[in-house]
Amino acid sequence: MVKRSKRYKQAAAAVDPSRVYEITEALEMLKSLPKVKFDETVEVAVRLGIDPRKSDQLVRGAVSLPKGLGKNVRIAVFAEGDKAEAAKAAGADTVGSDDLAKRIEDGWMDFDVVIASPDMMKHVGRLGKVLGPQGKMPSPKSGTVTPDVAQAVTDFKAGKVEFRTDSGGNVHAPVGKRSFPTEDLAANLTAFLDHLVAMRPAVVKGIFVRRVCVSTTMSPGAIVQYGA
Fold this sequence. Notes:
By secondary structure, the chain is α/β, with parallel strands linked by helices. Helix content is 31%, strand content 22%. The radius of gyration is 19 Å and the shape is globular. The two termini are 37 Å apart.
């Protein structure tokens, strides 16, 4: 049995698990809960009406949040020559090719996003077993395999978020920091949900968005209403 802190118990008492909150109401409630010693990330979890066993129903992509993420996103880029220099100029934290692949194979994982130019996939391909389980494997669908690696670096530094369905048919993503104004969090959350719905696979029938839950890093979740 998980032992909960006094702070968590106070937070849990303030969240009604049987209630469906309006988005703004839920976010204001989360911001009012007892604070911790760091600026928590506000996260969304979405249960989709898909069969995760079928590849044509899986959802993967990326979306630029209008109010950003409020965090420094660490980006590793696979590129050489002019593209490597452009990626560095755009703010990439680490740039390399075969040498970078070897560092990752040896256990280095000090990054949040991996971006690669298409010609570098010969090095990235062998990292599937390492990056795949963490959701960090570059993909054209999420905009992380692209000829314009510098623009991709700029986009992700500005608040572009990658997402993908997990084995249970759920999608998880950050939508900002607890210190953000409520309206900024609401704008990011709505933008994420709208983008997710726009990516609905044609083969999926019935209700696509089954449940939406928002929480902070250290809080219980609140179910929110989303009508799209």
